[in-house]
Write a structure and sequence with these properties.
This protein is mainly alpha-helical and about 220 residues long. The protein has one domain: hpI Integrase, Chain A (Orthogonal Bundle). Helices cover about 40% and strands about 5% of the residues. Strand 1 and strand 2 form a beta hairpin. The protein starts with about 30 loop residues before the first helix and ends with a helix.
Length: about 220
């Protein structure tokens, strides 16, 4: 079994009602720092997993819960349908969380994750061989992987949550409107993003996401 199979450090599951004020500045990676981190991870599926998360800015519990059936390769999008906490899967609760997210076409070309024995529609994309594919990799295994890569590249304070914060920061850098950022971050309350209301057209969402993906993808 993976180490820490029954543990979860997904701090995003701790919710304080009515609290949208940031207590401290999050760690945000520059494009160059992320490329260095990615270069330090050669083993699959971990490298592709890092790239996938940086290109989409998913919460960790949603990242590990993706199944092959969630991909719509023809229309280049993936639907976030569930989360996994302590190896227990549960459906996402809000309308914003269930919205499909765009995939940049260059992302698939940059992936090195090849054939896997766990390739049925209902199989986990990041299935753990140690669990015979019944569960995705556990948090502890993936936490150790990313922190070891960060140590090798001399990057302090890097966790999986860092990628989500970096995605939000990179969206800012592209000039994406706040309503676009809210949709791509899948925030149900725009105050979590910023205090502006509205909605964004799908084409605008895809364009903003692609600009971040092109920043993340290796040249």
């Amino acid at each position: 079994m993976d180490r820490g199979q029954n543990r979860s450090h997904d701090s995003e599951l701790v919710v304080v009602k009515g609290c949208t004020i940031r207590q401290e500045e999050p760690r945000v990676l520059t494009v160059e720092e992320f490329q260095a981190l990615l270069a330090a991870v050669s083993k699959e599926p971990f490298r592709t997993m890092l790239l996938f998360d940086m290109c989409l800015g998913l919460r960790f519990s949603k990242l590990i819960a993706v199944q092959w059936q969630d991909f719509d390769w023809k229309n280049l999008k993936v639907r976030i349908r569930r989360g996994v906490v302590r190896q227990v899967a549960d459906d996402v609760k809000t309308r914003h969380s269930r919205k499909p997210v765009p995939l940049d076409p260059h992302w698939r070309r940059s992936c090195r994750y090849g054939k896997t024995e766990f390739n049925k529609p209902q199989d986990w994309v990041w299935a753990s061989p140690a669990a015979a594919g019944e569960h995705p990799y556990c948090y502890t295994t993936l936490y150790e992987m990313i922190t070891e890569a960060a140590t090798r590249t001399k990057l302090d304070g890097v966790t999986w949550r860092t990628l989500r914060h970096s995605y939000r920061s990179w969206l800012d850098e592209t000039g994406a409107p706040i309503t676009v950022q809210q949709n791509l971050m899948r925030h149900s309350d725009i105050r979590t993003t910023m205090n502006i209301y509205g909605d964004a057209l799908p084409a605008t969402l895809r364009a903003a996401n692609s600009r971040v993906a092109r920043m993340a993808l290796p040249n």
